[in-house]
Amino acid sequence: MTQTVLTAASSPPGIVLLLIQFIDSIFTFFNFTQWRRHIPFGLCDASSNCWLLTETSGWPGQFLPDLPSYSTFLSENNLNHGLSSLYTFAFRTPTTSLGSLTTKDSLIVLTLLVITIRHIKAVLLPTFCNFGRKVGISTHGPQWEHQNRVRIMKFGEYVFRFLYHSILSAVGMWCFWNASWWDGSKGGTSNLWMDFPNQSIEVGMIWYYFIQGAYNIDALISLAEHSVIIKTQIPRGLEFPIKLSWSPNIRGDFREMALHHVITNLLVIGSSHFRLTRAGSMVFMVHDISDIPVDMSKLANFMKWKITTIFCFVLMLIGWLRYRLGILPFVILRSIIYETHLVCASGVIPFDLYRMWYPIFFALMVSIIALHVHWFIMLIQIGWVLCKKGETHDLTEHKTGEDQTSTDK
């Protein structure tokens, strides 16, 4: 039995091609390259249009240009290892192994950045919480502290998020404000895919991705820490020595947030690995900019500032509509649907390889947008309660609203 290349009419869907590639790789790993000959019941004989007979192009790594590692950089430039060489490699040289988060060099840096972010939070969050405590007491009286300990803790978290999203939004606009993919007169979003896979990965893009990747990994870890209580116990019978339970402070939209963080990290790592950082940077900016009024409204609501909460809430709705329900689906997703085939224009990337991976990225993006629609409906519900009762019930924190539902001016 021989492999055949199927005609376009009988060619399997892209996701099936990817499955065939996985199967072929597994059998190849076990040195069983002729596995197709042993398919039973004559399901895939030479005269059939069996999908399993399809030849696939292989994995993307076979077609993506090599990214020079730090050791290669030293060798090619006749340099010795030292702080100067390390600085030049990390902050002066584009398109290195740091341009993909899945290389060995990048994994080391990414791990260090996650640890750094967690240490920074450990130092700053108590300070932010203390600030929120003082402001709350000065506004609502000394009894407010005893009734709002959870609010104070969350206030510190959202101050950090507000600062992060504000700084990264400014950095993103500084680095990419004149990028061709944002400018319709220069070709707009088609530049996300043109010249692929030979697009340069600039140093600014490399570190922008590093910070975003580290932050999103930490966000997933923090969500788990705040939502799940881990206890050890002496096992009895078939009991497991570790017992998991939900935290009483679990978010009201924990499932949605957990799914969002998982999808986001898959997109971050996947877009970096596949060298699709231009498109990834657009998604980052859309989320960061729209997150600023979200954080502001959270802060105002936790402090029970009614007028400020209403103002920030209106800004949040406008930002959500403009960026997450506007640019994300009608600019970025539209480009993914109609323009991503341009990655094959250079002739380097086989079309069937594009078809193999397109459904995954498309599904992840659609899932993100579906979550944004779900949250927007939740925001409308919050706004209705705010207008009808003059109370701020944050359904993303607790399904039945905040513990303290009345708001003070």
Compose a concise summary of this entry.
The protein is an all-alpha fold and 409 residues long.
3D architecture notes:
The chain is an all-alpha fold. Strands 1-2 form a two-stranded antiparallel ribbon. It is built from eleven helices and two strands. Mean pLDDT is 87; it is low at 1-9 and 399-409. It folds into two domains: 14-56, no CATH class; 90-389, no CATH class. The protein is globular and about 80 Å long.
The amount of helix comes to: 55-70%
Quaternary structure state of the chains depicted: single chain
How far apart are the first and last residues' alpha carbons, in Å?
Answer: 79 Å
Strand content: under 5%
- Taking Cα atoms only, what radius of gyration do you get, to the nearest Å? 25 Å
Which sheet architecture does the biggest sheet show? 2 strands, antiparallel
- For the secondary structure, the number of strands is 2
Derived structural class? mainly alpha
Write the element-wise H/E pattern from the N-terminal end onward.
HHHHHHHEEHHHH
Strand order of the largest sheet: 1-2
Enumerate how many helices there are, as a single number: 11
Please tell me the total number of domains. 2
Low-confidence runs: 1-9, 399-409
Name the overall outline: globular
Key descriptive features of the protein:
single chain, 2 domains, 2 strands, 60% helix, disordered C terminus
Q: What's the arrangement of secondary structure elements?
A:
Elements: H1 14-29, H2 70-76, H3 83-91, H4 104-140, H5 143-147, H6 149-176, H7 203-227, E1 228-232, E2 242-246, H8 254-273, H9 277-302, H10 306-338, H11 351-389
Antiparallel strand pairs: 1-2
